[in-house]
Amino acid sequence: MPRNIIDVTDLTVEEINELIATAEDIIASPAKYQAACAHKQLATLFFEPSTRTRLSFESAMLALGGSVLGFSEAASSSTAKGETVGDTVHTVSCYADIIAMRHPKEGAPFAAAQFSEVPIINAGDGGHNHPTQTLTDLLTIHREKGRLDGFTIGFCGDLKFGRTVHSLVNALSRYENIRFVLISPMELKLPRYVKEEALKKRGIPYEQTDSLDAVMPKLDILYMTRVQKERFFNEEDYLRLKDSYILTPEKLENAKADLSILHPLPRVNEISVAVDRDPRAAYWKQVKNGKFIRMALIMKLLDIQV
Predict the structure, then answer these.
(1) How far lies 231's CA from each of 31, 131, 178, 228, in Å?
(2) Separation of CA 218 from chain center
(3) Which one, 81, 116, 129, 164, has the greatest CB density within 10 A?
(4) Which residues contact 112 (CB under 8 A, 6 or more apart)?
(5) pTM
């Protein structure tokens, strides 16, 4: 059976550390990897819109010397004709060596993996999980801080539907001495099941607040998120909450000098473009890091060593 990555916890801490080390080596010596996946094919099955994740996967495979096929919207696949996702994935697994799949329904990549003959990577399923964004975040934190333990991280914005937040909380809860600060409106708090499984069960202390200003001075990392219009059933609720937090240079005046600001992107208006010039802004570095960590993951799942 092929190995799939549906949840970041499908990887051990040791494996995550190995992937980060491989990504660091790719960054240092890209030429060494330029033919690592020659004659291998990645299929990108994106049933939901994406820019960074889809193009990052494609760029990663091309940088490894492989090729890419797939689709970028459900309407351009046979699911528009009524074909099941399982049949679509089974078909594509006959053509490709590995699949990256995004779907708006939670659990869809897990279900699809039961029909695939090749490894499947969850590229985001609804509001549930986004393991490769989490690996991107971990690589970015490691490059910014030099470690993955012993810091305070604040998650700000949509913590209810934010799959990147859920995945990163799960991943970081396995490292030592991490302090979590959860910043959101009451309606967008981190789901109880994430707190129970990742934090309470492990006895990890966390703080919940609706005030970013109050906790800013204690943060080593600030992970901003957008309020996701596509996850709301009621547009009035979205309009009421969408501007809950807007990060500006003024709001950073009381922040630590070595704060790292992350964001999975896309942003709407929750980070002012003026913050882009702040040396603490790390979200564009995050974008670049996504390619390198996905290169490392593709190689691992295809059992390719350089």
Answers:
(1) 41, 19, 29, 6
(2) 24
(3) 129
(4) 85, 86, 88, 89, 101, 103, 120
(5) 0.91
Residue with tokens 């009421």: 240
- Please tell me the distance from the alpha carbon of residue 21 to that of residue 39, in angstroms, as a whole number: 25
Pair of tokens at residue 175: 């490292």
Please, is 202 exposed, middle or buried when counting C-beta atoms within 10 Å of its C-beta (0-12, 13-18, 19+)?
exposed
How are beta strands 67-71 and 120-125 bridged, if at all? unpaired
| 3-state SS track over the chain | CCCCECCHHHCCHHHHHHHHHHHHHHHHCHHHHCCCCCCCEEEEEECCCCCHHHHHHHHHHHHCCCEEEEECCHHHCHHHHCCCHHHHHHHHCCCCCEEEEEECCCCHHHHHHCCCCCCEEEEEECCCECHHHHHHHHHHHHHHHCCCCCEEEEEECCCCCCHHHHHHHHHHCCCCCEEEEEECCHHHCCCHHHHHHHHHCCCCCEEEECCHHHHHHHCCEEEECCCCHHHCCCHHHHHHHCCCCCECCHHHCCCCCCCEEECCCCCCCCECHHHHHCCCECHHHHHHHHHHHHHHHHHHHCCCCC
Six-digit token string for 90: 């089974």
Tens digits of residue pLDDT in 238-295: 455 555 678 999 999 999 999 999 999 888 889 999 999 999 999 999 999 999 999 9
